[in-house]
Specification:
By secondary structure, this protein is mostly beta strands. Helix content is 0%, strand content 50%. It is built from no helices and 28 strands. The strands form 7 sheets. Strands 8, 9, 10, 11 and 12 form a 5-stranded antiparallel beta sheet that branches. Strand 18 (186-191) and strand 19 form a beta hairpin.
Length: 301
């Protein structure tokens, strides 16, 4: 086992005003319906008190200054999310399930049940509203979103789609897409059923697909400076592949089951699981050698 774990003591109750240290990222717990910050430093961090509660869904921007949530049938925007005096703005009254995707200070909101997309731009200052559009051509349950600034990449249980105002088309049929990340004009797609990572070059135009690597049961992807990191549920590991040569350059064994590899803000950190009252959150640090740290995730903190 090459993972590095650091244990520390956490006070049972910490008030918002007493929290200190940086905030590497934010975690939404669907069971408690809370968005909570990770406070402190890698290897010595804890989950802070809920900043958003009673939410059906919630997400923070990569820089941590903004957040969006679905609460009580409304879509709420929170500005100054990283400050002591955040402000709230109701963007839309729309009940039902919702998915969020950020691109800088633009945010896309998708309502899967009614196949509707709404995008707000420059929400840090103006919240400019782009025309809503439908996703009638998207087949199957929507699993994930990626907003590249102009276009929305949508993954379902069997395909990837590219959607803009007035245009939706299928990019690629995929047996079981579990994660998608973007690198410039290219997409990397984890196909869990096929045990494969797919590279989709020039996805907005030519959309040329090729195999990037074989990985058993990939469940998450993250880009570093020169590598693609892949979490495998089958081998319980994180592998690093060189972007240019496609060669595996490093591998980190895990003693828990990874369920995702989701970046924490703009930091080279990523969540590997969802955590629970009995299991901590595991955070991957890829700044130098691959290392894993845990953050207690008990719901009574």
């Amino acid at each position: 086992m090459r993972s590095l774990f650091l244990l520390f003591t956490l006070a049972a109750t910490i008030a918002w005003a007493q929290l200190s240290g940086p905030t590497p990222g934010y975690v939404f717990d669907a069971q408690t319906r809370e968005l909570r910050p990770i406070r402190g430093f890698v290897g010595a961090a804890h989950l802070g008190s809920a900043l958003i509660n009673d939410a059906d869904a919630a997400s923070a921007s990569a820089d941590g200054t903004l957040a969006i949530a679905s609460r009580f049938g409304s879509i709420e925007l929170i500005r100054g999310f990283d400050s002591d005096a955040p402000t709230r703005l109701t963007l839309l009254q729309e009940p039902g399930d919702v998915l969020f995707a950020w691109s800088g200070h633009d945010v896309a909101v998708v309502f899967p049940a009614i196949r509707k997309v709404q995008i707000w731009r420059n929400v840090d200052t103006a919240a400019d509203l782009s025309p809503a559009f439908e996703l009638s051509l998207v087949d199957g349950a929507i699993r994930g979103l990626l907003l590249d600034g102009e276009r929305l990449v949508i993954s379902t249980q069997s395909a990837l789609y590219l959607a803009t105002t007035g245009s939706t088309r299928q990019l690629l049929a995929v047996a079981d897409p579990s994660a998608v990340v973007r690198s410039g004009n290219n997409l990397f797609i984890a196909d869990r059923a096929a045990g494969q990572i797919i590279l989709l070059r020039d996805y907005a135009t030519a959309a040329i697909a090729e195999k990037f690597a074989d990985v058993a049961a990939p469940v998450g992807l993250q880009l570093s400076k020169t590598s693609l990191l892949v979490a495998s549920a089958d081998t319980r590991s994180v592998d690093a592949f060189d972007l240019a040569s496609k060669v595996r350059t490093a591998s980190l064994e895990l003693d828990f089951l990874p369920t995702r590899l989701e970046s924490l803000g703009t930091n080279p950190l990523a969540l590997l699981n969802s955590g629970s009252s009995r299991e901590p959150l595991y955070v991957l640090d890829s700044r130098n050698a691959l290392q894993v740290y845990f953050v207690p995730a008990g719901r009574d903190q």
